[in-house]
Design a protein that fits this description.
Blueprint: H1 2-16, H2 19-36, H3 39-46, H4 52-63, H5 70-81, H6 88-102, E1 105-112, H7 118-132, E2 135-142, E3 147-152, E4 157-162, H8 163-177
Parallel strand pairs: 1-2
Antiparallel strand pairs: 1-3, 3-4
Helix pairs in contact: 1-6, 2-6, 4-5
Length: about 180
Amino acid sequence: MKDLIAKRYIKALAKTASEIELKEVLESLGKLAGAYRIAKFREIVESPYVAEKQKVEFVLENILNNSFNAKFANFIKVLAEHKRLDLFEELYGELSSYISTLNKEYIAQLIVSESYNQEVLKEIESKFSKKLGVNLSLQQRVVANSGIKLVVEDLGVEVSFSQEKFANDLRNHILKAF
């Protein structure tokens, strides 16, 4: 639910800000997302006993040290007004995704049973980047299954090969022949 709300706020922010401003906002949201992991910060921001104006001042002056633009200050005020100061982590994730989409840069997960060297990873990365028409950054994850899977979540792409599925398909094909 929070992701959907964050997506709406980022969509509205993106309509009014340039790409440079969005990168500045991303940096500030990164600081706030990191601060949100601290219990004392969460306690202050979520407290019903602290006034909205004090929360905004605390976030802008103490956490960000007044290093922000006017649009971002208004953005924080709107979040406080609608009691959405608990969305910093989701907003950071959504804005990061949005900026990646603008630049056609995506992170792909390569899920394998054994680790590959950097040379092979770079080759896979370049071939899939060319095939999809985007810039991919490949991250490898080793798991205990027999197969290989490439997932690019932001694009909705999943390519996989499993030895078990291949053997089952081959058996089914042979059985259909008889």
